[in-house]
Amino acid sequence: MSIAFLADKSQSKITKDDLKDIAANLNITIQDGPDAEAYLLLLQSMEAVMQRIENSTDYIHPSLSPVSTAKPREYWLPRDRNEQNPLNAWRHRCELVASKPTSRLLQGRTIAIKDNISIGGLPTTLGTFTEILCRDGKLPISPIDASVVSRILEAGAIIKGSSNCENFCASPLSYSAATGPVHSPWLHGYTTGGSSSGSAALASANIVHRQTQTENKFGLTVDLAIGGDQAGSIRIPASFTGIYGLKPTHGLIPYTGAVGLAPMIDHLGPLAERLEDIALLLQVMAGYDGIDPRMTPESPLRNQVPDYPEQLSQFRSRPLADGEGLGTYFKIGLISESFDIPGLTTQVRDTVLQSSKKYFTQAGASVSEVSIPMHREGIVIWTAASRPSTSEWACQGKPGGFLTFPPPHIHTQWPPDQKMYEILTATNPALINIIFNAPFINQRFGPMTEAKAYRKVFELRAAYDRAFEEFDVLVTPCTPSVAMPHPKMCADTDGPASSIMDKVNVAVGVTTNTAPFNVTGHPAMSVPCGFGSVSERPDVKLPIGMQVIGKRWDEMSVFKAAAIFEEGRRLAGQ
């Protein structure tokens, strides 16, 4: 590898002791002499290179420059303008409308954007604390619009603000945000699921409001929302709150401008009450942006993105022959191993099994079980393949070895200190676990085990792909239970706050059926399929979601399956 230049030694503070310390950490001993002098000069030269970059002006990619808006961009906290935020679903509020939209696909539709996605003129807080994001107490303002934000504005939508998300997006539940737990509109004090917690709460509250037919008790809500998904963070909150949530094929929607956990598992996607709106948002957001390295030669160009809403409409309205149903010739495979995972409650298992068999069949589709033994290993493979990278990307903000465009305003604290440890232990100990995992994995196993896990991802993908040779879509339960109460986050007169294990135990197993498809890249969507309850509040209905998985790059089969399921419910009078 070439050397840019040799530094002026007099301009460096690096000493031989620094060199020896670096070598010692690598189990190498360097004696004084010509070798030490040479390597010291090379270190000093590297320091000069990095210092020159650090001192230079940053670069904003023209494609990410904020879209021109009808009014100057401003933001506020909900309480600043006496706006209700009873679900704690909003992080920052705004009112952004493009001054010159290029289409009317989302004209007048209101939308919330998860708070790990850059919105020009607003802070991006990742659900965490100000002191972890900046040392001066001033939240950094985004100088860019993420690719999906630009596309949403250009389609005529009204961005109402950033929705709360879990601390560093590292929880499948909704108790860890710096501003406190995000509450389910179905039952206050219960989880919405995470990490796209605020997005799900804001998009689902309208359903609860209509069903209860009472005055609005949720404050400002939205028609549509955008979330992020690394292990189920769109599908899990969609399942817990009774709406649709799609994790598309990896690389279909650009992740540019969003803060990720690890490139292999990073996805953005839509949440909405209606299936047609999921299809519409996917049409708006999908397509190659020329920046995101997660996208591949399989990713369509913008002008090649399918018209998902039109194709869905044509599928629903196509003429049927006598005796045909909407789902005739469509094959549904129920992954048998997914109905036997640890922690799966009887009511969720039975609801997904019975409703899928009843309603798909009612609409003419065939339903049968398929065994994919490797599904049981999916969560293990996901963990081993993604955990080391998660520490580097999410916690350290470290880019990979390929060209990418990290959000320029995000500078998370690294290395951690005692105060950071205490803050995160109290709110999201899963993140401290991630921080501890990376050096442990490196010391105990080294990179080769992680590399083997990558190869196992291909094996897992192939196992699902073999099933797709027989079936159009696969089905699993989405979450293993209905929503559960938040752990106790603060000590009070009733006793201490919940322990680390109290917070961790409630989340164990939540992503078992969802995370495997983040590493394999298959599209997967939570489809509302029924309701359950909890013993503490048997009078309250809590949603249950069914996960529908499709072949990679075949979102339309996922949409068709959901439409068939809806038709089956209609025919059954549900």
Automatic annotation (TrEMBL):
The species this protein was found in: Talaromyces stipitatus (strain ATCC 10500 / CBS 375.48 / QM 6759 / NRRL 1006) (Penicillium stipitatum)
Record-given protein name: Amidase, putative
Example of a GO MF term: catalytic activity
Pfam families given in the database record: Amidase (PF01425)
Domain Amidase: 101-558
InterPro entries documented for this protein: Amidase, Amidase_dom, AS_sf
